[in-house]
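#data-curation
PF: Archiving a pair of folding outputs for the training set. Convention for this channel: one message per protein, sequence first, structure tokens after, nothing in between. First:
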Amino acid sequence: MKGWTLLQHALVVAAALAGAVFAAIGIVVRQRATMDVPRDQGVSTVMVSTLLRRRLWWAGTASAVMGYAFQAVALAYGSLLLVAPLLVSALLFALPLSARLAHRRVSRAEWGWAVLLTLALGVFVALARTKPGDYEGSELPALIVAGISLLFVTLCLAVAVRLSDWRRAILLAVGVGVLFGVVAVLTKLVMHIVREGSVLRLVSSPALYVLLVVGVIATLLQQSAFHAGSLRTSVPAMLVLEPMVAVLLGEVVLGEHLAVSKPSAVVLAIAVAAMAAATVALGRDEGAWEEELEAAKATAETGAAPGD
């Protein structure tokens, strides 16, 4: 029994990391697809209609969907409290990919943060043991939280369209982090139903349809956040907020909790703090690279000199 538990734990971790790989590819590729969309059209139907005609965007979206599929598999067999923090490892895969596309070398500082993130993730995986929640009784509270989250994000969007630069970017990033955290909770509930093997219950569950709606809105909002400016602000905010919201809702709404000793809890807290710090640092660097690429592309297309 213990051997099966360890194997299941390993498979959950592997699926979560595979999801992070495809998510990283999706983030980098979809960001490239928005580079020539006018900055003032970052939250508009112009951006959506433009992207829908681009194969590059569809390729990035396909990768993101594949990443989500692996995340769903991980959540089918693992706790949200384990899976959600592992998704920040997407930065470890986005870092070399972005560097290659930008014709840069990864700096020593970035390698240092990457090593710290890797070690912290390793400690987290080794020590984190969770207890399942009450998934049968959590659907209604999850739906209520989803509705409140959509209202909150609508307010963020209404304010964001009146702002520019880093203020718009941070508001959109907050909305993205909140919505994807809710998506993770709804995915856990849906995958629980799938594991129960009841097709009728699945198609009659409101959670499935709310998940689809929230997922589509979160994806479109993320695309707008990629193009809103100040990526060095928005990227780390998105990557840190999503697991934070997911873990919080996993505890409060789903009733999941960690089953570790006090010494292990202290080490886990240190590991999580290190993960957050490394994620912010790498996210800022990733955003800075993307901003430089956008600026270089804009300069090349206008024919203006860099100093103009």
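PF: Second:
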Amino acid sequence: MKMTRRTLLGAAICMGLGWGVMSSAMSADKPLTMGFSQVGAESEWRTANTVSIKDAAKKAGVNLKFADAQQKQENQVKAIRSFIAQKVDVIAFSPVVESGWDTVLREAKAAKIPVILTDRAVNVTDKSLYVTFIGSDFVEEGRRAARWLLERAKTMPAGDINIVELQGTVGSAPAIDRKAGFEQEIKANPNLKIIRSQTGDFTRAKGKEVMEAFLKADGKKINVLYAHNDDMAIGAIQAIEEAGLKPGKDILVISIDGVKGAFEAMMAGKLNVTVECSPLLGPQLMSIAKDVKAGKEVPKRITTEESVFPAEVAAKEFPNRKY
């Protein structure tokens, strides 16, 4: 069967159009690829956060490229540059510290890859370097911890109430903000005084180590421990017990996160209150990432809803905890 040049040309055009349509369809069906850089695995909270993100990506059909920074900013910068080189659709990360991100985020912007911040914020001169920030209001968490103490102080003996503080990782958003929020509120009672404040790096081991030092220096003076996360509080509780004191009674213990370990400590009478900070950000992150990739407008700041759990409600709430 003979085909004229015109017929062949027509067939070729039709085939080209066909491939174009198929290519568009394939592009539309192509799963979103997200590069995610996690702080590390320093706490129960962070482990739950990682599980939430990985599970949500799987359920949402998102191709997740995951990198653990092991609490080092240089590792996160390398991971972000690797994601840029791999031409992912979206980059998301939970920054180890607030500052030092301008250069690498400009590189992502130049590559036209949108960036989503999760859990922790960054301090950059150009806010357009990231699309949105999903996470907790850390200042409010500090305020909530202080408000609980202000109420409790009304039932305590007159005189100074000495507080020791276990801060989170130096330079991190939650450490800066939880300290600021707490200090703002306790000003309402001049008897509340922070006598020692030091980083415990958000880890149980460092929390125990620093609390041991606090107890050696001021053991008999300490009335309250304020820890920036539950893991440090749990480590500090061990130190208090080893010093022959009763956590939750001799020294009130206040912490933030709301992990199962904190509820167990409250049920044992060793921790007095935990302020919730939900790590279950995965489903929200995947939904926002898809909206961003589709060109939809998203809010610059998305705050998660959270509660305060005093020891009195721990037993009732414990079965509901997912992390």
